[in-house]
C-alpha cells in the first residue's frame, strides 16, 4: 500500500473530551461548536490508544476550525442513524440535539418526522435529499426470456414469414385434396417432413402435382436460403449479444423476480420514504447497518446474488465513482422526499449559529458543497483498500461465471441443432436408398413379367 495512505492523513486525531483550537491557540477561538458524530465515524485503535475522527466531512470540520476560527469538540453518538420522534422521545443521533449535547452534525438531514423541532430551518436546500436505486448491471441469463429471439425481426417481417408458411401449407393441402379427395392434418405434416422425397421418382400420373410441388418447393428453398443469408447473423447476434439489465426506475422493482432482495438502512430517512411510497415491496427488504451497507459484503451481494440497494443518491454516486471499472449503476429515476439541510441545533445561540449558516450558504452557492458530499462516507483509506479487495472478488468470482454460463447455454442449443440436422440427413439418405431399392425391385419384377409374357407368347 502507498506510504501516503495513512490514517493521519485522512483522519483527525482527537482525545475524547478535548477541544481543538485554531492554530492550537484557545485565545484565537471566536466561537465554539460541538459536532455530533455517528458511532462509525470514530476509529479507536486499541494497540496505540489513539482515537481518530474518520468522516467524509472532515474537510468541513477543518474549515470550521481554520476558516471560521471556531474551536470544535466532537460528541460521539451510540447510534448510526439520524433518528425521529417516537412517543415524545428522539431516537438516533438527534438525541444529542434534544439533550443540547451537540450543536452541529455534518450530514444532510431531511426535514421529516417532526425534525423541524430540533433542526434549524433558516437555510433549506431544495431537492438535496435524493434517493436512488444502486444496482449491478447484470447479464440476463439466456433462459430468462427465450422469446428474445423474436426481437431479431420487426412485426412486419414476422408476418411475411408466417404468410409464406401458410401459403406453402395451402399448396400442400390443395395437392393432397386433388390426389385423394381427403384432407388430413397428419398428411399435411407428413408432406412437410417428406418434402424432399417429392422430387424423387414420381409416376407420369402425378406429373402435374409433382411439377406444382417441385416449383413451390424450389421457391421455398430459394426463399429460405435468402432469409438465411440476410438474417442468420442477426439471429446469432441476438443470441450472443450482451444485453445488460439496468434498473432505472422504481417501477422496475415490481418487474424483478421474487428472488430479488432490497437492501435498506434501518431507522433512516431513506427507509422511511421508501416504505411510505412502496409498502408492497417491504416484504423483500433486508436491513443492513450504516457501516455494512457500503461494505465489501454488500457489494458482493449486488454482484453475485439478486440484490438492489436503496440509498441516498450522493452516496450511490460516490460508490460508483470509487469503483469505475465495475458495472454499478445509479438509477435515472430518483425520489425527492422533501427539503433538507445540514443539521444545526435549533436552540443554538446566534453567536455560534450565524457563522455556520454563512459557511454553508457559501459552500452551496459556489458549488463546493457537492465536492464535500461526494466524498465516500468512509475515509479514503478504507475506500481504496475495499476497492482493491473488491477487484479481487469481482475478477475471481463473478466475471468468469457469467461468461461460462452464457457459453454453455448457447452451446447446448447448437448441439441440439447439429444433432437434429444429422438425424434428418441420415433419415433422408436411408429414404433415398429405400426408394432406389423399391425401384430396382419393381424393375426386376417388371422385367420378369415381360420375359414371362414373351415366353407364354412363344
Automatic annotation (TrEMBL):
Q: Name one GO cellular component term.
A: plasma membrane
Q: Which organism is it from?
A: Dermatophagoides farinae
Instruction: Spell out the protein name for this chain.
Output: Uncharacterized protein
Query: Which spans are transmembrane here?
Result: 155-177, 183-200, 212-231, 414-435
Keywords of this protein's UniProt record, alphabetized?
Cell membrane, Glycoprotein, Membrane, Receptor, Transmembrane, Transmembrane helix
Q: Where in the cell is it found?
A: Cell membrane
> Topology relative to the membrane, per the entry?
Multi-pass membrane protein
Is the keyword ATP-binding in the record? no
Q: Which InterPro entries match?
A: Insect_Ionotropic_Sensory_Rcpt
